[in-house]
Amino acid sequence: MAAQTSHPVTGRQPVLFIPHGGGPCFFMDWPVTWDAMEAYLRNLRHSLPQMPDAILVVSGHWESAVPTLTAAQAPSLIYDYSGFPPHTYQLRYPAPGSPALAEQAAALLTEAGIPSATDPERGLDHGVFIPLMVTFEEATIPVVELSLQNTLDPALHIRIGQALAPLRDQNVLILGTGMSYHNLRHFMNADPTTDDAARAFDTWLLQAAYLPEAERNQSLTQWQAAPAAKLCHPREEHLLPLMVVAGAAGADQGQRTYADTVNGKALSGFGFGLSPSPTAPMAQPHAVSPA
After folding, report:
1. Do 205 and 256 contact (CB within 8 A), yes or no?
2. Are 248 and 242 in contact (CB under 8 A)?
3. Best CA proximity match to 172, nearest among 147, 150, 141, 203
4. Are 283 and 47 within 8 A, CB to CB?
5. How far apart are CA 162 and CA 115, in angstroms?
6. What is the DSSP letter of 24?
7. What's the gap between Cα 166 and its chain centre?
8. In degrees rounded to 5, what are phi and psi of residue 56?
9. pLDDT by residue (tens digit) across 220-263?
10. b vs e for 146-162, b when ≥16 Cβ sit within 10 Å of the residue's Cβ?
11. Given 87, 96, 158, 278, which is the most exposed site by the fewest CB atoms within 10 A?
């Protein structure tokens, strides 16, 4: 078993692709710019059928020769950002790990013909602990991080998600964290040309996410053919967690769960297998102006 069930299970967990922001942005005095994203992350748990018993996170900040899973009982934190205030290097997220979940996920990958590994020493990078500090601030749910495979092959990452999909029925939340737009050279500068490019790519991504499974996977595999694709993602590591999530989604319908504009750049988050709740609707953040 991935984890001992401690919450009443009323439905399989959805799979989510979420933005993790810029560095430790939610823990700084950075007025307005990241407020809507923080509100979205803080309300994310209300879209789930129940609290998960474990979280498997794919971050855009870890690449390895084979997909690798953290297997520490108490994972450390990796402050893989630079130039931020001293207090942001003292942030803590003491969530437990789950060596059992790491081993089970590795076994599922092996069964699918995908070589994998576990790492008992590796900690959680900021693409994991920063959004989780907002979404699951209690830090009581076990967390396992999964690396990207360093060839950055989108089809392989869809296969990885497909192999891990059975975990959803064991109350494991599969979470991809990255950014739907990730060109740092342009991100902090509102410019009509690059802003239009971001909107064009975001529109394409939204359309791809809503496609039926086979067409969705084909479109995401060929993401570089999308409008302004390489301008929005000069390197695709922040987009590939979406491929894992889409693979794990199977036939579940995609929907946009987050729509925002930060510094002129359109950003989106996506969920698959979500059931709208009349009592706790998914937050839809407003657009914000450049800081």
Report:
1. no
2. no
3. 141
4. no
5. 14
6. T
7. 18
8. -110, 115
9. 999 999 999 999 999 999 999 999 999 999 999 999 999 999 88
10. bbbbeeebbebbbbbbb
11. 278
